[in-house]
Design goal:
The chain is mainly beta. Helices cover 14% and strands 40% of the residues. It has 4 helices and 13 strands.
Length: 370
């Protein structure tokens, strides 16, 4: 029995030696692959040499693998995709039949992975959507739908800051003025109440000279925000003092222009008359409390109004420069200087009343808001 086993081992070793020699001869006679090729020629030749062999009948227990050279076992050039491991009776290149009790394995990874290009024939047909930005999809849910119809009126105290209502009263100019033989008081006040989008706004601006009200302009407006830092104002204006009273419809815009210029531009209409008023001011901060504020204001009219001493075109222009110190943000005394001039028919009406058309005055007052 021992002799038979020894003879069988010798026969197996002799057979393996013959296969290795035949494989080496086939590798020498086979044309090497061209540069940049896939090496399929040599791999195909080797697979044909070993095709049809049944390794399950071989006894490898007496083989000394330590004596085999690595060069003989180098299979880096073999193309395993061309080898038929299915056994006898199958055509080379055909899919092997699934074994009973085992799942069928399909090595066509390109189909399993979706056809990814650039990875050995495998590919994923993947499409990445935009991560941020862009228009919402047509079926996007309304962000207000989470409220399910519940309004702030039913949940008192839960309003967002931009929906909460606030109010302020501002005495921007409450001052005494003296110069060029005149003295008197000036008033410029604003008051508003509402939220960040809608406000009820009230304005008053007037002058008092020699104990008499020279002019007073009051406006009641609805202020509606339409852009960042900007709002429209729609309402009425009433002129009194210094002649007959006048009522106007008012429409304008106010807000912060580039470089933080506080700007107001308002148009008025009254019985076929048009008027416009422009006011621009800027705050120059020397410190957080010491602030210099230059200001420019102009008034224009389409038609002359002798009853109020107003001419057509550019009626008057006023420049002001005030330096205030904010003891608190709500309380700031100031001093300054103003220069005013009348133009056109307005200057003629002023001369008829023996009034000056140019005035330079020193002012002192206080700015208060609460």
């Amino acid at each position: 029995m021992k002799t038979a086993t020894t003879k069988t081992g010798a026969a197996v070793a002799l057979l393996i030696f013959g296969l290795v020699a035949a494989d080496a001869a086939s590798a020498q006679t086979t044309e090497p692959p061209k540069e940049g090729g896939t090496g399929q020629a040599s791999g195909t030749g080797r697979s044909k040499t070993m095709e049809g062999m049944d390794h399950s009948q071989m006894d490898h227990s007496h083989m000394d693998h330590t004596q085999m050279e690595k060069s003989q076992m180098d299979q880096s050039g073999m193309d395993h995709s061309q080898m038929n491991h299915a056994g006898d009776g199958q055509v080379q290149g055909a899919k092997p039949a699934p074994q009973q009790g085992k799942p069928s394995m399909d090595h066509s990874m390109g189909q399993a992975m979706g056809g990814m290009d650039g990875m050995g024939g495998m590919g994923h047909d993947m499409k990445m959507g935009p991560m941020q930005g862009g228009s919402p999809p047509p079926d996007a849910r309304d962000p207000d739908a989470y409220a399910e119809g519940t309004s702030f009126a039913r949940l008192p105290g839960n309003e967002m800051n931009d929906e909460m209502r606030f109010g302020r009263i501002l005495l921007d100019k409450f001052e005494y003025a003296k110069g060029d033989g005149e003295h008197g008081q000036n008033l410029d006040a604003d008051a508003w109440y509402g939220n960040d989008y809608n406000k009820a706004w009230f304005k008053a601006e007037g002058e008092r000279r020699g104990g008499h009200l020279q002019s007073l302009r009051t406006e009641a407006l609805w202020d509606r925000t339409f852009a960042t830092f900007w709002s429209t104002q729609l309402g009425v204006r009433h002129d009194s003092g210094g002649g007959d009273s006048r009522n106007w419809l008012a429409f304008g815009v106010r807000g912060l222009a580039p470089y933080w210029f506080d700007t107001e531009a308002t148009a008025y209409w009254s019985g076929g008359r048009l008027a416009a008023r422009f006011n621009v001011r800027y705050e120059l901060l020397f410190t957080q409390q010491l602030i210099l504020e230059p200001e420019v204001e102009a008034n224009l009219y389409s038609r002359a109004d002798p009853a109020r001493g107003v001419g057509s075109g550019l009626s008057d222009l006023e420049l002001g420069l005030r330096l205030r110190y904010e003891i608190r943000r709500q309380f700031a005394p100031y001093v300054g200087v103003t220069w005013a001039r009348n133009f056109g028919d307005t200057a003629d009406y002023a001369r008829e009343r023996r009034e000056r058309n140019k005035n330079t005055q020193i002012v002192a007052g206080v700015r208060i808001w609460f």
